[in-house]
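Handout, page 2. Input:
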Amino acid sequence: MNIPRYYLGLIDKNDPNDPIGHLAIPAKEELVVAGSMGETTGDPYGDDKHDKGNGILHKYPYSALIVATEYCSMYCRHCFRKRLVGLPTDKTLENFQKAAEYVAKHSEITNVILSGGDPMMLPTSVLRGMLSALAGIKHLNYVRIASRTPVVFPMRFFDDELLDLFREFNEKKTLYLPTHFNHVNEITDLSTEAALRIRQTGVTVNNQAVFLRGVNDSAKALIDLMNGLVRIGVNPYYLYQCMPVSRVRHHFQIPLKEGVDIVSTAKRSLDGYAKRFKFIMGHDIGKIEICGRHGDNLVMSQIHARPEFPEEASRIIIRRLTSSGGWLEDLPEVEA
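Output:
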């Protein structure tokens, strides 16, 4: 368990169902590794299959993800890399220069994601070295730094040296910062100021929320979150279906039959910018957009695919909804 003092102060200690508390404080439900929701896994996204060593995960031809550190400012209870975060592991970066050389040798890579853990926990001088190594790679269109720090430790962005680095790099190559607000209560004066400071450097801030039982599992919670994000200049980008992670799935995952209706109801009340997020399943076979339901059928569109199955990208997938199914494998195929 690791909770910054700032984030700890957001928890309503008199409310046992406080959503911020659910995100930060361990619960007995984490001991459950099997149950009615179905099978669990430690590697739902297939990281191990695409591990190129030295912290490089290369799942899609055009994107390379670099696990820059195993440390985070907070250990989120729903983390899909729960088996790695906070523990020494051979999955993280050892030599960034070699990682940059890998990217430079693969001209099909158009973007790099610095991930973890949380790269913003690294010293600014280390981040400068990483970004400098990527700045000169011509076939890279942009770089992303995936970080929950604007939400749980926004004071990190009150460092002028860091903001200068963002500004300097963004003049050479476009920089994005995907972050991770899950509930409107995380949008505070400090996190709003952090988002503003980042945006003033020219960096675009996108949000990738996770759909979580007890946190944002109502239309109102999603409406408040998405409206709050656009109000502070953060773009709603993804809403992830909670992955079937061991010690996560059975208390956080929402059945798809229930979840698709909640999302559809929320979108009816959101304006164009607030509703532009995609409801996503980050599956081993690739990213799948959950488009909606037609009767008891769930309609999905695969938007990324592994390189060995390029024909699967953009295909339509239809599965039969069940009362408890929360993942692709839980839903029966629909006969033609």
